[in-house]
Structure formats: C-alpha cells, structure tokens
Amino acid sequence: MDVVQTERASEIAKRVEEFVRTVVVPYERDPRCGSHGPSEELVRELRSKARAAGVLTPHILPGGDHLTQLETATVLKRSGLSPLGPVAVNTAAPDEGNMLLIGKIGTAAQKKRFLAPLIAGDARSAFFMTEPAADGGAGSDPSMLQTTARRDGDHWVIDGTKAFITGAEGASVGIVMARSNTGEDGDEKVSATMFLVDLPHPSIRLERILDTIDSSMPGGHAVVRIEGLRVLDDQVLGAAHEGFKYAQIRLSPARLSHCMRWHGATTRAHEIATQYACTRRAFGKLLIDHEGVGFMLAENAIDLQQAELMIDWCAAVLDGGSLGTSESSMAKVAVADALFRVADRCVQVMGGTGVSRDTVVEQVFREIRAFRIYDGPTEVHKWSIAKKIKRDTLSGLHGA
C-alpha cells in the first residue's frame, strides 16, 4: 500500500493493520454502531483494546513528537481498513486534526488541559466552524462567519449557531471559531478567533443531530446553539483575530488525513469485491472472467495506485513545509473522486450483495460519497485551483 516508508512507520503500520483486521473488523456488525456513529460505550471498548495492543494514537510518539506526514500516511491508511479503525486507534476526524492544531499553536497550559486527554484517547473533540446555510452562515466560505465573539471586561462572549459539527455530542473538548471584529470598531474586514472550551457547557446547546448519509463518526453531525458563552483570554487558541490563518494550518493536513483513512477503506472494499468476483459464477464462468467485471477491478487498482501516489507526494511536500492550498485542493479533488469511483465499482461488481449490509462495502460507499463534500466540496477546490491558474498566468503575462 505504500510507495515510501521508514522502518519506524512500517513497524507501527503493521501492528495497526493487524489490530484493525483481527480486532476491529468483527465489531462492524455490533448493534452499538448506529446511524449517528458508534456509541460512547463502543468507543471506550475499542480504545481500551487499542491501548492494550499498544496501537492507540499511533501517529503521536511517546513524548509528544509526531510522525512525519509521509509516515502518518503509512499508518492512517492502515487504520482506515475499517470505518471503525480510526475511531478505535484514535486517528479519526475531527480529533486527529484538532490534536495537530493544539499541538502546533497551543500554550503549555492548553496542551495539558485540552490536548493530553485527546492523545490519551480519554476524550473526544469537536471543531465548531461551519454554520447553517439557511442563516447565511459560513460553510465553504469561512469569511461568512455569523457567530460573534465580543470583548466584555476580561472575558470574551460568544453567540451564534453552528451546523454539521462532527462529534459535538459526547465531546469533552471544543474549538470554537467566531468572528471577533463585530463591527463595533468600524472595521469591515472579517477576522476570526479560535477558543478552546470544556464540554459539555451550559451555554452550548445541541439542538439536534442531523441524519446524514455517513455513519462512522461518534456523535454524528450536530446543529449547536451557542448563547452567552463566556471564556477568558487563556482559552484563546493562538493569537486573537488569527483564526483564518490557523484554520489553514489545520485544514490542509486534515484534508490529506481524510484521503489517507479513506484510501484504507476503499482498499478493503476492493479486496471484498475482488474476492466476490473470484468466487461468484454467472453464465458459466467466474465474474472476474467477464470483461466488464474484470475491467472494473483493473480500473480500481489503477485509481487506488494513483490516489496513493498523490497522497504520498503531498505528504512529502507537506513535510518539506511547502504544501500550498492549491496542492492540498488538488489532492482532495483527485483522491476523493478516485476513491468514490472505486467504491462505486465495488458496489456494482457485487450487485445485490453490494447494496446490502451483508458486507462493509455499502457503508464505505456512503462514507466516501460524503467525503466528496466534507472539508470542502470538489467544486470549491476546483475553483480555488482555477483562481491560482489565473493569477499565475496573468502574472506571467504582465512580467513578459
């Protein structure tokens, strides 16, 4: 599954893969896996087993050092071999991205209070950024933030509504992103600030859990109302008014992490579809010997290989410190669309069995379909890439 890997990453990935395949996969039929994700009881049980196996939070080493992004790709692809795998070994969204962000810009006190429980697998987190479309709130365009944070003495007071907040139900740690110039100072430029909060909190009310196409993330995706939430300066994550910059620090690697995890899931779906095609007979021969089916599996192998090359290349560039938003967008578009094609073909190869829940293929298809929207729809990323093409082209013309 890997183009490049270090001995350290290879050893960790091997243990993670063995754990996911032998311990986690049997839980995929557990009744505690609901439409809004695995229950808290199941999460605790899986993480207890991961801790005992020495594979909990495998991308963060003892002492707090992270694997490189390229090494992380090796490990996260293995954790994704089951939709429950990232939850079990603590590499799932949004926790993985939140751990990265707090680790990069949090203070020592914030890391002790908010980060340590996440790394230990004793807590889950939520990232409160997106808002209801009906209210004109922020989605793919974070500059549309409606949630406000205003100064009141030595406190900040936060008010607003958030939507599609993954894992809010049951989370212990929250990162709330709010517009911190409210127009009171005459500044029309939108700026944002991030705040760390303990959850649950009486000023943060879950209005409902959305019924969505995916079902792998604990707590599902919530609509949340924030009313009169008061936080002190020591809960500001990073510097005030720098939230948009920090969002990019988090989101670019997080998009890539999604690609890593879902590459593992579609690899597993492809394995199941291939086994089915190599054992199921129709019209006097195995399905794989029918050109239409065999070609679909060949196309899967090509898409998986190309997606892996894109993931590993972007991870290496990110390790070098030069991954831009355009490259991150390219990876999100190329990998999400390729993996969706793989999942779709797996369903098609397996026919009626593919759309049933007798195997995990049906769930992988649903999860990958959602991935093409989460962390920015394909079309938004293409628009971002097109803008860069325009800038680079006009700059070249003017400089000629």
Automatic annotation (TrEMBL):
Fetch the SUPFAM superfamilies from UniProt.
Answer: Acyl-CoA dehydrogenase C-terminal domain-like, Acyl-CoA dehydrogenase NM domain-like
**Quick one: a GO cellular component term?**
cytoplasm
Subunit structure as annotated in this protein's UniProt entry: Homodimer.
What range(s) does the Acyl-CoA dehydrogenase/oxidase C-terminal domain occupy?
Answer: 242-389
Where are the bilayer-spanning segments? none
The family line of this record is:
Belongs to the acyl-CoA dehydrogenase family.
Task: Provide the Acyl-CoA oxidase/dehydrogenase middle domain boundaries.
Answer: 126-211
* MF annotations from Gene Ontology: acyl-CoA dehydrogenase activity; flavin adenine dinucleotide binding
Residue intervals of the Acyl-CoA dehydrogenase/oxidase N-terminal domain: 6-122
Protein name (record):
Acyl-CoA dehydrogenase
Per UniProt, the keywords (alphabetical) are: FAD, Flavoprotein, Oxidoreductase
Q: Which GO terms describe its biological process?
A: fatty acid beta-oxidation using acyl-CoA dehydrogenase
- Needed cofactors: FAD
Coiled-coil regions, chain positions: none
